[in-house]
Design brief:
By secondary structure, this protein is of the alpha+beta class. It has helices at residues 3-28, 34-37, 92-104, 120-128, 157-167, 175-189, 191-195, 198-212, 231-237, 242-255, 293-296, 314-317, 341-345, 355-364, 388-398, and strands spanning 62-65, 77-78, 81-82, 88-89, 109-114, 136-141, 146-152, 214-215, 239-240, 260-268, 274-284, 287-291, 297-300, 303-305, 310-312, 321-322, 349-352, 375-381, 404-411, 414-421. It folds into 3 domains: 62-152; 157-346, C8orf32 fold, CATH 3.10.620; 348-423, Translation Initiation Factor IF3.
Length: 423
Amino acid sequence: MRRGGRRRLIIFLVVAAIVAALTASFIWNRPLPLREWIAPTPTVAPTATPAPVPAATPSPTVRAEVTPTAAPAKPLVFEDVDFSAVSRYSSALELRDAISAARAEFAPQMAVRLAPALGLEDFIAVLRLFDGSFNYTYGTLPPDGELCALIDLSYTPGARIARAYASGQTEGLSDKEKIVYAQAAAIISDPAFVAANIYYKERIIHDALSDRCTYWHIENARDEELEYQTAVGLFLNGRGNCMSYADSFTMLTRMAGFETHTVFGEAMDAEGRWESHAWNIIKLGGVWYAVDVTYDDLDSPPFTSSYIYMNIDKSTLSYTHRWPDGALFEPLAEVLDGAYAYNGCYPDLLRAQNPQEFQDILSGGILSDPNASSGAIGIFCDGFTISAAQVNEWMTRLRLPRAWMSIEQRVGEHQYWTFQVNE
């Protein structure tokens, strides 16, 4: 090869090497694609998602569950009740008796604390003994987790049934309440009831309760009859105390369209002692009156009912009843007026304004009818009283053809006599 051609070859190779070097430098130092500039997220093992904890299904009667968030050393307090100072019940039987006693005293609510051996199921089982569940709020007391509850003792199935009747919704009623609902609906849908005026409707309700029920003292109640303090006990068991009469009267009158309330206070017993009592007030013709079916239910066969406590005024009621301020809900009539049972509402309920009228009623009534095989006559003494000795003297003088029995009732200055022909 010639020198000149050789030189050109060397120059060519040098230039080619330089170009190759520059090209390689460009290729290996090019910018990375966008996805490579983003720092890759480090791979982390996924954390297992905890299974959802199902919410505890409360009893249908639980109003609210209170979980104390205070430190363990701080007492459990809700609804302004310090449960560290509340009595603790160690058995279901002890709790049952305590609730019965509280209801008999018409306590509006009751705070309870249960020994660790008793749980929520035990607590609810005791409430079910009273035919239905009271509203209650519960929580646990540190450090032992004792169950504490605040019980609303104002369970009144009669009022619940009346609300269900007004709304047409019975789904929330218990099985027993539905039975009472049907029986109560039958009373107020009877054609005779529908056709009656307001006074006779009230009387039909009054008599339906006194005819159905025998007064049941609390000490007579067996375990399965603890519902006796409600309308359910009166309708299904045929027995009850003043609370069941009042609850039943509220139920039937409200279902019939009356405005009524149950009143809690005290009343004087036959020995002159004051004891806890419940009765009603009812609105008739724009005026409120007191009604006490318990005291009108004589429960002394053959005498079943009187009406001396039917639509009475405040002053008459106060002879035998007393109540806390505000307990009456509404201002009562101040005097006995035309709504009072013996003031003309019912022709068969007779009123005497003096002793002579009393004798005239006796001599012209059913007791003097020789053909009467049965029957009764009631006389209300308006503004005077007659002794049993006087009654016996008059009855002897009349030479009645039939044997008879009598019973006397008094409320303040008013006296009521019932005479019954013996069959």
